[in-house]
Amino acid sequence: MAPAAPGDFDDAVAHDLDEAWVEIEPTVVRRLLIAATQEFAVRGYHGTTTRDIAARAGLSPAGVYVHFRSKEELLYRISLVGHQHALAHIRASVVGVDEPVERLRSMVGAFSCWHARWHVPTRVIQYELGALSHAHYDEIAALRRGIDAVVRETIEYGVERGAFVVSDVGGAALALLSLAIDIARWYRSGGSRTPEGIGQLHADLAERMLRTPSSPDRAV
Amino acid sequence: MAPAAPGDFDDAVAHDLDEAWVEIEPTVVRRLLIAATQEFAVRGYHGTTTRDIAARAGLSPAGVYVHFRSKEELLYRISLVGHQHALAHIRASVVGVDEPVERLRSMVGAFSCWHARWHVPTRVIQYELGALSHAHYDEIAALRRGIDAVVRETIEYGVERGAFVVSDVGGAALALLSLAIDIARWYRSGGSRTPEGIGQLHADLAERMLRTPSSPDRAV
DNA sequence: GCCTTGACTAAGCGCTTGCTTAGAGAGCAG
DNA sequence: CTGCTCTCTAAGCAAGCGCTTAGTCAAGGC
């Protein structure tokens, strides 16, 4: 279960965030997005003040509002970029992989690995959706349905080809999503588990969960 | 993925909460705990005001402080009772079940069913740990280690008997916990899935994840 | 009757919140 | 130089926050 201690991993977090936004925004806006992501991840949206974000980005409290209209807009931008990233990543993981078991393994491995690698922004985009405005929430929800669709289609594809035995496709899809998304709750960087190792483990588990019994299972 | 719309299931929630505290507290304190649980589940700890809680419980803002020293004490009491409940439930689910696969199915089914049945308090106790004081957090963390231990031991028991093929017991335990805990994020009461159905589904998936391949799998 | 006890509220205190305003200073075009 | 643009800050506003204070009222012991 390995729950988060209150405000502990604050420092262990900074090092892997910067790259996430490199291709997207120039310096000050990027610094603000990184600062907001870190604060939201540790304290939650409502537990974070705009002064916290400004201070972490090296600005005065008013400096935030030169670049963002509101605190909610910061959350929206983080959510939007994060979900676009995730959707692109899971889509890319299945193209060109035609064998059903390998397609499943590729998808689950990539998606779980992504959640571990980006566990700090993921914590924000998975657990702070309720703080978005209705309009922004609707936009994000559409991206999430895209992710759901990839998982469902990958399972259905394996069922059609006779590679999987699954009577409840929706339930199986929820389970695979749970494995990945819950990483954002328990994962700590600096521990013994690597993102790649978690992806491998979840690929093994997913294969055993769904595959038609025939050849011997890989040990988990 | 089925994310929570911002502040939508507010009303769909009230009906299954009252019983949770019946055996524990008399009327006013119970009403406050229920009100706080509902508000924390929908808006988060930091997004909820003591005025919200008081209003929902039918008291003036000052009425909260007749029964609780602080807002954090409300969260602590909710967390404590919830974790004690969960630990007792998962422990009870394995006693007297000696066949390893059946023990696993009983544990996973009971634990996932419990999370769906009590998804509103679960949302609070799983995702608001970071708002507890350090002392209170430590107390809750001990209960959580007790839950982890039951899951680990159930897996190890099956491995020793040759019923499971598992090389990474810790990873498998995390996966089973993820399936259950993540229910608090996606489950909505009033939908087509019942707590019992989810327990059954997760028991099937867990069995296929861990079991030594021999007899044919149950369809999922 | 009187006094104490305990649940409760009206009012409000001191502080923090998200955000705005007024203006400083740098950079650059002309 | 002047004038305009852009980034940023010092100061602060109105609202909301957790929690306290002073006191009301009903119940119960004597």
Overall pLDDT metric of chain A: 88
The multimeric state of the shown protein is homodimer
Considering residues with a beta carbon less than 8 A from a beta carbon on another chain, report the largest interface and each chain's count.
A-B, 57 and 57 residues
Total count of helical runs of at least 4 residues of chain A: 10
For the biggest sheet of chain A, the summary is: none
DSSP summary, beta strand count of chain A: 0
Beta-strand percentage range of chain A = under 5%
The structure class of chain A reads: mainly alpha
Identify the overall geometry of chain A.
Answer: elongated
- Share of helix among residues of chain A? 55-70%
- Given as residue ranges, the uncertain stretches of chain A (5+ residues, pLDDT < 50) are 1-16, 216-220
N→C terminal distance of chain A: 19 Å
**What Rg of chain A is obtained from the alpha carbons, in whole angstroms?**
19 Å
Q: Give the SSE string of chain A.
A: HHHHHHHHHH
